[in-house]
Specification:
The complex is a heterotrimer. By secondary structure, chain B is mainly α. Chain B has 13 helices and no strands. The chains are: A alpha/beta, B mainly alpha, C mainly alpha.
Amino acid sequence: MKKRSLYVMLFSMLFVILAACGKGGGGGGGDGSEDAEGAEAVEVIGSESKDATELKFWTFNALHIDIYKDAVSRWNEEFPDRPIKLKAEAYPYDNMHNNLLLALQSGTGAPDIVDIELGRFPNYLQGEPQLLPMNEYVEPVKDKFIESRFDIYSKDGKNYGLPTHVGATVAYYNKEIMDAAGVDIDSIQTWDDYVAAGKKVVENTDATMTTLETNDYWSYWPLIKQQGSDFFDENGEVTISNETNVETLEFMRSLIYDEKIAEITPGGGHHEEEYYGFMNDGGAASVIMPLWYMGRFTDYMPDLKGKMVIRPMPKWTEDGNRSAGAGGTGTAVTNQTEHPELAKEFLAYAKLSEEGNIALWRVMGFDPPMWTVWEKPEIREDNKYYQYFGTDIFDTLLSIREEIDSINITEKNPLVQEQLSTNVFNNVLRSQSQSAEEALKEAEAAIKNN
Amino acid sequence: MLARDKFFTIIITIVIALIAILALFPLFSLMISSLRPSSELMRNGITLSIPFEQLNFSNYTYIFTEAGNYWSWYINSILISAASIILCLFFSSMVGYALAVYEFKGNRFIFILVLLILMVPFEILMLPLYQLMVGLQMIDTYLAVILPMMVAPIAVFFFRQYASGLPKDLMESARMDGCTEYGIFFRIMAPLMLPSFAAMAILQGLSSWNNFLWPLVVLRSNTMFTLPVGLATLLTPYGNNYDILIAGSVMTILPVVILFLFFQRYFIEGLTVGGVKG
Amino acid sequence: MSERAVSTTDSSRSKRSIKDFFLSRKVVPYVFVSPFIISFLLLFLYPLISGFIMSFQTILPGQTTFVGASNYERILNPTFFKALSNTTVYVILTTVILTILPMILATMLNSKFVRFSNVFRASLFIPALTSTIVAGVVFRLMFGESEASLANTVVGFFGIEPLEWKFGAATGMFLMVLLATWKWLGVNILYFMAGLANVPRELYEAAEMDGAGIIHKFRHITLPMLKPITVYVVTITIIAGFRMYEESYVFWPEGSPGNIGLTIVGYIYQQGFRMNDLGFGAAIGVVLMLIIFIISILQLALSGTLKKGE
């Protein structure tokens, strides 16, 4: 009998616990206060009024929440009759994309608005996209934008994702190291100049000239794009092992092993803690990354403040391009939203308006895809990026504006990324078990067979 | 004691002590790391030398004062683990017991099914299971996390092995006294199995406390997250929050270690008495 | 629960017959196993069948089509074999290490030679209390590639050059096996100690009378007596090994260089979710299930666990 009462007790305990479920999710959350000690993983932003419409927003980068924080407060001021309350949540990169896939696949559980990273975006364009087309908002302003940034988030003429930045790739130089090596940064115009400068750096300082990623493709993609090549051509045919791509990969290999001016990125990529530490301690004189990488410097490499400068990429030929668009986040409205019109209008307000684009720069240090704002005085207002990298960021950007070709995206891009970051770079650059041509041919076969 | 025995005692004790130190070392260094500024940790990782001058409690102060949802995650984890343990022990022990003491049609078949579940990779069940949870409108509730853990095959397996070691003549004499089969289980056999309950409570509690993949999929709002899921959200390629992450990790281990040390005796007893039979 | 259901039925006649029905020795076992049956049908069989059907489909939102066995045909590719061989090596290593090492340590802890046995037992078990995610954070920080990292300082004592732990096939496997060993050693020690507690002391005493040495006693008494528990430990280690994902995930959340850390479950995850190819992922899952099933049944059959009347 005793034992049975034990069970009864356990059970009543259980029901108490389960009854508590319904109430879960109260409390917590933020009040959108501005003390932002680094972005919180969840925040409720905006109007406290009861008739405010709640929109749910997912992102894989907690820092992106700040963009919408800014937009919501502007929106609520401008449209007091249609207040918005944005519930923003940040998940780990992989998990957010997977959860979104499950939610869209099963028809429920998705947020109203979501940030989707470029490398994963094609997954959501397969089949019937479960995202809402934004054409009505995109078309009127298209000519003010770097247009190709819409194409990468589109299918069959419908624009699903709104771009977050241009992703212009630039060269970040550590001026202190370059000076110590006796190199004038502005004299570096071509990749040959870059290699020559690298030799001086290696000779005269303890640093290496640059680092090359093996677990991501930012050291490679912009370089081939610069030369007009890509992983796919305009018709979506795989071109990953074409001559330019093979030669460029071989060039990267030779930077490490023949010229000895480059090292494999510590930790394997430019987003690893090992690299932040290495770079912060003056481990490399330069790095080639898109402009959106600025935030990593300001946040994780505080010691380099005032030492880094931003310049166009070295070019391959005399009249070659000095930049390339790389990376991206497409923000989309899902078809599961209960307020499609409001969600779309708000998203367009945040991403397609002039203020919105200025905010992309002001808040995040992103190069806004609406190029018409690049010359606005608001863009020139002092902020932490100017303090860190100097005041000539937009001069550099304007000088290369015509040279930013964008990437071609197909459904198979996730596969390319996987092949490059697991096999190709590892086998060619790290273990040297394959030549550039062998590795790229093998990757091409794997992509075609999938 | 023989000289030879003394020699063995010393050697074996040293060997085991060394292994024990190795086993505790990572956790020890985690604790030291939690006292270091995260920027330092990010730069140099865990090093062999301890930089005493850097140590301070600021990461913990941060957790206790402004760590956002950390404590909601904590409470969620405790509630979910408690409920999972209770439900799982109740149901799994019944099933394991029946498989062990009764000869009935399908007994072997069900046992094989139990093993089969043990073998199926959860990943292939994930999407359909997720759709089921959607259908049951359980997404983002505790129940969604608890339900799939209710009848844990590994616990059924263990209880079956344990119960088959119980003295059957006790059952016979209870039947003579007019006890029903249920009475036999609840009043006689289950109490005999109590030690095994302790053992399974710890193992199930652990797997629930540390469960990652499933809660990650079915829990949606940050305030509903469990600790591992919440901590993983701090670990994004776009900004590792090492201050909370490391100190937060230490705080997840601490209560379990204390509980374990407290209940250790019952736990060992549970695994030992009657023992596991193949 | 069922008991309560019985006692609250009202009408006395039907109460009688229903009660009798639920009390009969034939029915009781089924009542006991009913929670399992229900959860099996709902939470396992249904998803399993859906998963099986999915493995013959291409699943895209709004466009699910049957594609026959083409998902299965695609499985036989180099990446799958890489995942299979990684997983197999991992299973073999963990099974051997996590059976032999705990067995020896448990025998030591159980012997009269060890003082403070309880303290050691507890210390060895504590790693099991850590979640793999948390453990992974520590291991990643310890096995950094810089010269100053803890692991490289240690190998430096032996005159070995700093290693890039997370980037070599052998060191990568070492990291995964080490993490698993660290985490599960204590648990398996406890299992074995449980088994040892059931070995009658008299057996040892009798052997000692005959002048048997330690090795002899271990081989001829300890080992045979530990057989049942060994079967249990080996079974769960093999199964856990084939299902392993987290140990790899914590070192390489986005995919490993040269796929050195790719496991079969990791491959399911990669294809099913990262590549949005749920049908293919499901097909790999079905194959994995068959592999595990065959190996476990073989293993259990060989050890006699499935025989009647155990």
